[in-house]
Amino acid sequence: MSAPATPPPMVEMVDLNKWFGSHHVLRDITLGLAPGEKMVLCGPSGSGKSTLIRCVNGLETFQEGKLRVGKTVMDGSGEALAAVRRATGMVFQHFNLFPHLTVMDNLTLGPIYTRGEPEDSAIARAKPLLERVLLTSETWKYPGQLSGGQRQRVAIARALMLEPEVMLFDEPTSALDPEMIHEVLDVMEDLAADGQSMIVVTHEMGFASRVADLVVFMDAGEIVEAAPPDAFFAAPSTDRAKTFVGHIAREGDQ
């Protein structure tokens, strides 16, 4: 009896290269994200992490290599970009909510106006998502009436409204006060436990150790090391990753 076929990667990058002018931002990036897998991108500021994740949903373009999301190859066409945007949900560092719309309206605007979903249907789908991120009591408030952690949880629920195959998080807690970080990470861990495919750019290495299937350490636009969290944090194989992990350990001791 033959073994079941391995499903293709949900996201596949092969020899991806990107430049900003003469600055080589991404260098020969090759990665694959399996269905249900959680990948954490980490490394120093300016290493290319955010640029890479923004390439995945077409916010940035790349000059060389191959990028496929779901069944769609990013070929520069408007059709491919629209398909990838439907397949991915993006959560940014600074929330990007519409300040003049209520929480409910922020969630339902996209499905109603881009997909033609009836308003009653969109509201019915939004309610359990707001319950999931513990914001039912804030449904009709405006973003300016919420804390930073609450706004980021609204942003997560809004991304989930489009039922993405892959969730992308670009440093989702870096703009938050320390006491608000855990309420956002708790929601992300809940999503991970439910099998959501995720790529996360973060400096929260405790989250990476608990949730990630693969930790990818980047520096100067290159993948320096990629390993499961147990191996990456306990025994990194490169000197650059050892320095990074050692720095994290010293910060934890302070």
From TrEMBL:
<keyword id="KW-1003">Cell membrane</keyword>
<dbReference type="InterPro" id="IPR027417">
    <property type="entry name" value="P-loop_NTPase"/>
</dbReference>
<dbReference type="Pfam" id="PF00005">
    <property type="entry name" value="ABC_tran"/>
</dbReference>
<dbReference type="GO" id="GO:0005886">
    <property type="term" value="C:plasma membrane"/>
</dbReference>
<keyword id="KW-0813">Transport</keyword>
<keyword id="KW-0067">ATP-binding</keyword>
<dbReference type="InterPro" id="IPR017871">
    <property type="entry name" value="ABC_transporter-like_CS"/>
</dbReference>
<dbReference type="GO" id="GO:0005524">
    <property type="term" value="F:ATP binding"/>
</dbReference>
<dbReference type="InterPro" id="IPR050086">
    <property type="entry name" value="MetN_ABC_transporter-like"/>
</dbReference>
<dbReference type="InterPro" id="IPR003439">
    <property type="entry name" value="ABC_transporter-like_ATP-bd"/>
</dbReference>
<protein>
    <submittedName>
        <fullName>ABC transporter ATP-binding protein</fullName>
    </submittedName>
</protein>
<dbReference type="GO" id="GO:0015424">
    <property type="term" value="F:ABC-type amino acid transporter activity"/>
</dbReference>
<keyword id="KW-0029">Amino-acid transport</keyword>
<comment type="similarity">
    <text>Belongs to the ABC transporter superfamily.</text>
</comment>
<dbReference type="InterPro" id="IPR030679">
    <property type="entry name" value="ABC_ATPase_HisP-typ"/>
</dbReference>
<keyword id="KW-0472">Membrane</keyword>
<feature type="domain" description="ABC transporter">
    <location>
        <begin position="11"/>
        <end position="245"/>
    </location>
</feature>
<dbReference type="GO" id="GO:0016887">
    <property type="term" value="F:ATP hydrolysis activity"/>
</dbReference>
<keyword id="KW-0547">Nucleotide-binding</keyword>
<dbReference type="InterPro" id="IPR003593">
    <property type="entry name" value="AAA+_ATPase"/>
</dbReference>
